[in-house]
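User: Intracellular protease/amidase, Lactobacillus colini:
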Amino acid sequence: MKKKILVVETNQATYGDKSQATGLWLGETTEFVLAVEKAGYEVDYVSPKGGYVPIDPRSMKYADKASLKLYQQADFQDRALAHTLSPSEINPSDYIAIYYAGGHGVMWDFPDNQGLQKIAEAIYNQGGYVTSVCHGIAGLLNLKVNGDYLIKGRKVTGFTTAEEILAGKRRIVPFLNQAETAKRHGQFIRRRAYASFAIQDGHLITGQNPFSAKAVADKLIKALAKKQ
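Assistant: Predicted structure for Intracellular protease/amidase:
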């Protein structure tokens, strides 16, 4: 039986203490999940606190027909949005990969969550894959292997500084992905703003922006197929 893939989502509904809504970018979960489920993998959903996952309202207008169909399914509504698992409920040995979905909310509750960090590090150390898309790279920033940052010297990508400026969020986000990657001596690779792009460096697979979720899934599926 194939091991499962763990999808990580945010619990953060606002930009810090500002009264401006954010949360999960829906397509970053749905497009990834649709691809890996089609390839025969099961998924579970976890969030830093467990339970409710808010959706960034702006993301709904970018959701395609397939994403909206998945969004309306009772099982998805229950497991991915209303009752996500908490880190304490996760056994890392059940998973072959972990995937950090984005949305601006993750910038507040992904980087320092020790429960999620332990899960991701365990999955990586057992030969699994650590993956992310867009702002989901926030969950990778503080992961460590053998005392060093996981992304040190590795090629990664995520939502770029230019894309943050274009999105009008440069002044309200708590950090910039490119700058934080550089501080950890990661090699931040970027392509044209808002174009699909994903990169693999060993068991690390990352995507640049909301349009890169399927590209991350495709690289992960291909990598997992080689191991079977």
